[in-house]
Amino acid sequence: MEPQEQGISRRQWLARMGAAAVVPAAAAGVLAAQQSHGGHGAPGARTPATPEAALRSLMEGNRRFAQGRANNPNRTLARLQELGTRQAPFAAVLACADSRLPVEILFDQGFGDVFVTRVAGNIATSEVIGSLEYATEVLGAKVVMVLGHSACGAVKATMDGQVVPGQIGSLYPYIHPAVEDARGRGVDAVVEENVRNQVDILRAASPVLASALRGGKVVVAGGMFNFRTGLVTPVVSPPRT
Ligand SMILES: [Zn+2]
After folding, report:
1. How much distance in Å is there from the Cα of 152 to the middle of ligand 1?
2. Which of 80, 81, 93, 190 has minimal CB crowding within 10 Å?
């Protein structure tokens, strides 16, 4: 749900999200820098200082994974204990819930690096938008990536328009505009169109993200993960600054 729907102010909403909410994004960024020793990426790597560097870190991690030279950083219990009760992820990802899409593995990241929201079809529901607002505004994540993938079952089901049990069909309205936009093309074309649509929704429907975008604190990007190559290819690139 969005804060407006409950008739509460953004400040009240942030306060309800827990004690960490009192840490403004800028302070969270400083915290991230202070915690960067032994932090994300290769041993000794520093937390990305800018949104562009944060996006680059994700893409470089994916290349390492796809080329079979992953560092598997920050995967130890010691790292988790070092983080303790604090977190300052440098990136936030909205990915499909598909079991073949483990975000930390495919971007070669570990504990505390990426704030991940996952739902079938990587759709920007109100709850997802609220989570991503928390990741950026409160925790200081500098990049938000919407991540689709090849042969997405949620997209295929929407294209087929089959009658499905339970609430599976609740995914369809979010994905259906992409089916219309990419009509006559294959499932992967619809996946790409859906990534573009969800990026547009994030940019337009979230005043928090829109403000962070205007202020240059965050970039929003879209990508597509290919099961055959292991690579994420850009679908939506942030505008150059
Ligand atoms: Zn999927």
Report:
1. 4
2. 81
